[in-house]
Write a structure and sequence with these properties.
The chain has 284 residues and is an alpha+beta fold. It has one domain: q2cbj1_9rhob like domain (Jelly Rolls, Sandwich). Helices cover 24% and strands 23% of the residues. It has 7 helices and 15 strands. The strands form 4 sheets. Strands 3-13-8-15-6-5-4 form a 7-stranded antiparallel β-sheet. It has a 4-stranded antiparallel β-sheet with strand order 7-14-9-12, with no helix packed on it. It has a two-stranded antiparallel sheet with strand order 1-2. The site of 2-oxoglutaric acid (AKG) has 10 residues, from β8, β14 and β15. 2-oxoglutaric acid binds next to β8, β14 and β15.
């Protein structure tokens, strides 16, 4: 523990930083999020808290909790409605919709506290998502993109996407990689990975000469937080034994979420084709 003088007490341990529903950020972490477009926060969830999350996560992966249509898919191919044991990246969209008992869980509450420290008041949960890369799947690649390319444009685009590592996330099993500072540029042109958005939800953009992606390895219970503009993606899972499971809670400004819903945009992969086409037109 830091200094023996309480008036000069420094925050040094993860459990110090977790305070009930909140998690305390340092000024350096807030500055780093603004500069780079992302930040790594250690020990946002304790091991006991992760065990509780993992129990529900596994129920989703086993298919014990019903998820409608394309909201349970292989993110790499868009395949859905087939045996998920063959999927490279199992993607569950909107788990809090399909398992309402998760609404208001501890990770959501800590994510809210973190989003407000990074982005200010008036942030709310926009969507949540589970992304599990199967072991031994070099094809479990999440292609380079900026999240804003997937979304409608609004006036207040403050975003804090909280990405929780359910397994240690490493270069070997396909950890997140970011292009620091890329959120300061306009959104790049993106295209659907295969065909159009009805056959493949996934969008991709190209790296430019000089772009150097930074892998961010994080431990179970840690999170990264990124904004809507930073370019990111992740590589395949080369581990023969380890899943790379992530639980994502994305917060955006209340006005943006209200505008999305008004236009029928819910982040479900079952959203109407014309809603997704309208978004694509913005970033082609
Ligand atoms: O989990 C991944 O590898 C990618 C996730 C992602 O792109 C996101 O959360 O915005």
């Amino acid at each position: 523990m830091g200094s023996s003088d309480d008036s000069d007490r420094t925050v040094t341990t993860d459990s110090d930083r977790r305070r009930g529903d909140s998690y305390h950020l340092t000024p350096e972490e807030i500055a780093s999020f603004r500069r780079d477009g992302y930040v790594h926060l250690r020990g946002v969830m304790s091991e006991d808290e992760m065990t509780a999350i993992e129990a529900v996560y596994e129920r989703f992966l086993r298919g014990d909790i019903a998820v409608a249509g394309k909201d349970f898919n292989d993110m790499t191919t868009g395949e859905h409605g087939t045996d998920p044991r063959g999927y490279a990246v199992v993607n569950v969209m909107l788990p809090r919709k399909y398992y309402p008992q998760w609404q208001g869980n501890l990770f959501e509450r800590r994510a809210q506290s973190i989003a407000e420290q990074l982005c200010g008041e008036g942030m709310t949960i926009d969507f949540d998502q589970l992304l599990a890369k199967s072991p031994g799947r070099p094809d479990a690649v999440f292609h380079w993109h900026q999240d804003q390319a997937y979304w409608i444009d609004t006036d207040d685009r403050r975003t804090a996407t909280c990405w929780l590592a359910v397994d240690d996330s490493t270069i070997e099993n396909g950890c997140m990689q970011f292009l620091p500072g890329s959120h300061h540029e306009p959104v790049r042109a993106h295209r659907p990975l295969h065909g159009d958005r009805s056959s493949s939800h996934t969008l991709v953009t190209e790296l430019r000469p000089g772009d150097v992606m930074k892998p961010v390895e994080i431990s179970r219970g840690d999170i990264t937080v990124h904004n809507e503009g930073v370019l990111h993606g992740s590589g395949g899972n080369y581990s023969s034994s380890s899943y790379r499971r992530a639980y994502i809670v994305a917060l955006r400004s209340q006005s943006t979420v209200a505008e999305e819903r008004r236009r029928g945009f819910t982040h479900s992969h079952n959203d109407a084709g014309e809603v997704l086409d309208a978004v694509d037109g913005l970033h082609a």
